[in-house]
Design brief:
The protein is an alpha+beta fold and 219 residues long. It has one domain (5-60, 85-213). It has five helices and five strands; from the N terminus they run ααβαααββββ. The chain has a five-stranded antiparallel beta sheet. A hairpin with a 2-residue loop joins strand 2 and strand 3. Helix 1 (5-29) packs across helix 2. The longest helix has 25 residues, at 5-29. It starts with a helix and ends in a 6-residue tail after the last strand.
Length: 219
């Protein structure tokens, strides 16, 4: 049965609402995730000059996906079962969101005293080998590393999923607010940046395979 315009809008709104709540819950319950810092002036994380590591783009979230044949239509007082229109289960979505928020926390947590290998190790199991190399290169770039050391930068990260931007059979792109709570000899303080983070995989096995500024790739 093809959804009408009102039902399509309702399904997408419910997806966004669930993801926002799920991101907050996962972040609050993570043992290593500190509480969200107050949002300060928006600027890119100081140790990543320009993240642009998006893999092949997943299919954009569409509103014309039809439910399986024989699925009952939601009545006026019923909440639609959104998972009948998605290519993944509730458990798979929760797993993908957990990996995304844990990555965001690790991505924004660093110290001028640690080596690149130590920083990358904090994301072990959360990111793909290709992305690992790209983040390591950005973190160890001479100008970035010199600034981090000269200002004695130490950051505690937090992350919050705000929405889903796109999804496909084996990939999901979340919009994530990543916050650095930075202490430094100059220009310290909290800063929050919005990213599009793509995870690939399935079931309960996901890895972050791409990260870019949310504004990239959007008209």
């Amino acid at each position: 049965m093809e959804l009408n315009a009102t039902q399509r809008k309702l399904v997408f709104a419910v997806i966004v609402f669930i993801l926002a709540g799920l991101g907050v819950y996962l972040l609050d319950s993570a043992e290593s995730g500190p509480s969200q810092a107050s949002t300060g002036p928006t600027r890119p994380p100081s140790h990543h000059p320009h993240p642009s590591t998006t893999p092949a783009s997943p299919s954009p979230t569409t509103s014309d996906t039809s439910p399986p044949a024989g699925s009952p239509s939601a009545g006026p007082s019923q909440t639609p079962d959104i998972y009948q229109w998605l290519p993944f289960s509730k458990a798979a979505l929760a797993s993908a969101a957990s990996v995304t928020t844990r990555f965001g926390v690790a991505y924004a947590t660093f110290s001028y005293t640690e080596k690149t290998s130590t920083y990358i190790a904090s994301m072990h199991g959360l990111i793909s080998p290709t992305l690992s190399g790209q983040i390591a290169a950005a973190y160890s770039a001479p100008g970035v590393a010199r600034l981090r050391t000269s200002r004695k930068q130490v950051s505690t990260g937090s992350a919050n999923i705000t929405s889903m931007r796109a999804f496909g059979p084996s990939s999901i792109t979340f919009v994530v607010s990543i916050t650095e709570k930075l202490t430094a000899t100059k220009d310290g303080g909290p800063s929050t940046t919005s990213y599009a983070v793509t995870v690939t995989g399935g079931g309960t096995n996901w890895q972050v395979s791409g990260i870019e500024y949310q504004s990239q790739g959007q008209s």
